[in-house]
Amino acid sequence: MSGDHLYGLNPERSAVMRWSGKAGVWSPIGGPAGELFAGLSDLYVTNYGDGGLWRYRAGAWSRVGDAGAAYGTRGDHLYRLDRDRAAVREWDGTDWLRIGGRVRTLVVAE
After folding, report:
1. Confidence at residue 37, expressed as pLDDT on a 0 to 100 scale
2. How many C-beta atoms surround the C-beta of residue 79 within 10 A?
3. Under a CB-based contact definition with an 8 Å cutoff, are residues 94 and 62 in contact?
4. Rounded to whole angstroms, how far apart are CA atoms 67 and 86?
5. Residues contacting residue 77 through CB under 8 Å, at least 6 positions apart
6. Coil, strand, or helix at residue 75?
7. Which of 3, 25, 30, 101 keeps 20 to 30 A from 11, CA to CA?
């Protein structure tokens, strides 16, 4: 859930879906995705086809970098554990800043 919306993947993972608020009524808003997670106001998905991490905001998709091993959000902050688990990074809106070293798991709590 992000903002006032509920999102999910269809069973084949070929589409990102948004719930209309009515029982059984979902609408596609994006294509194939591996994982999805939500922040305060944004939806994030991994795309196995291009190896990217994508953000859905205000009805539009934008790439925010490469997919990692794990993700987390707190408020408007987005965190990523690099694929090789060598660094924890925070998205500053333009670039991924290294904020920590090698870890096995990333968990973000409010």
Report:
1. 86
2. 20
3. no
4. 14
5. 39, 90, 91
6. coil
7. 3
Closest listed residue to residue 72, CA positions, set 37, 97, 47? 37
Give residue 90's identity as a one-letter amino acid code: E
Mean pLDDT of the chain: 89
- How many whole angstroms separate alpha carbon 6 and alpha carbon 17? 9
Q: Looking at the DSSP assignment, which residues form a beta bridge with residue 86?
A: none
Measure the CA–CA gap between 55 and 43, rounded to whole angstroms.
Answer: 6
Rounded to a whole number of angstroms, the distance between the first and last alpha carbons of the chain is: 15
**DSSP 8-state code for residue 14:** -
Select from 41, 47, 81 the least CA-distant residue to 63: 47
How far apart, in whole angstroms, are the C-alpha atoms of residue 25 and residue 58? 20
For residue 95, what are its two tokens?
């670039």
* Residue 68: pLDDT over 60: yes
pLDDT in tens, 21-52: 999 999 999 999 998 988 888 899 998 888 89
